[in-house]
Description:
This protein is mainly alpha-helical.
Amino acid sequence: xxxxxxxxxxxxxxxxxxxxxxxxxxxxxxxxxxxxxxxxxxxxxxxxxxxxxxxxxxxxxxxxxxxxxxxxxxxxxxxxxxxxxxxxxxxxxxxxxxxxxxxxxxxxxxxxxxxxxxxxxxxxxxxxxxxxxxxxxxxxxxxxxxxxxxxxxxxxxxxxxxxxxxxxxxxxxxxxxxxxxxxxxxxxxxxxxxxxxxxxxxxxxxxxxxxxxxxxxxxxxxxxxxxxxxxxxxxxxxxxxxxxxxxxxxxxxxxxxxxxxxxxxxxxxxxxxxxxxxxxxxxxxxxxxxxxxxxx
Length: 296
């Protein structure tokens, strides 16, 4: 029995469920900090997550500076910009809507990879992307709580995540995962400290706990995510990320009273279907290309 539990816990699928839940919890606590300046949240998140990251690097006996410093810095910058903009959307539109818009990031990852990694995208994949974006438009038109301004901010955040993911893909063969994550936290500190000089709100009461949990759950999510992709095929675990939307809709309704209209819900479904289909098709396509290469 114990052996079965250990195997279940250590599986990549379980790790991805834990990663999805951890990131979702971090988002909930950001939502709870709606009256706190975003840069301040980024600052505390970077300190807490960075501390855990530093401990992990020391235990792994890896040099923190890494090898490809320019790419590490650019990954940190793009990730920080995406994080700041995503936090802004979390604070100003329904939790489920902000989460759904962020799910567009795999599309931007694939699009940027055309130029950055010289990868190709098929007509069918573009069709899936169109389905996903039509879902975003449906959300915008049938949910008055999602303004055009915050929709654009959310889409730019997803684009920034796509840029960051491409840098991670370029760095994965030369850098330890914790080093990549550490640079993300360092850039977050560098960017947030000057900004806090112009907008500072001293945390009070439970806000300290919320800030701590944002950092803890963010770091847990990064660790579980890394473990998931190292233990299972990418296509097998990537789709699990979209269970986060179920959490977002449920908690948004129960805690924040964020009820979804029929058409807004349909829009969310289109986003998930479009992105998930593109991921599955892209993975199947790569597998077939590898098989053809072997046959030849």
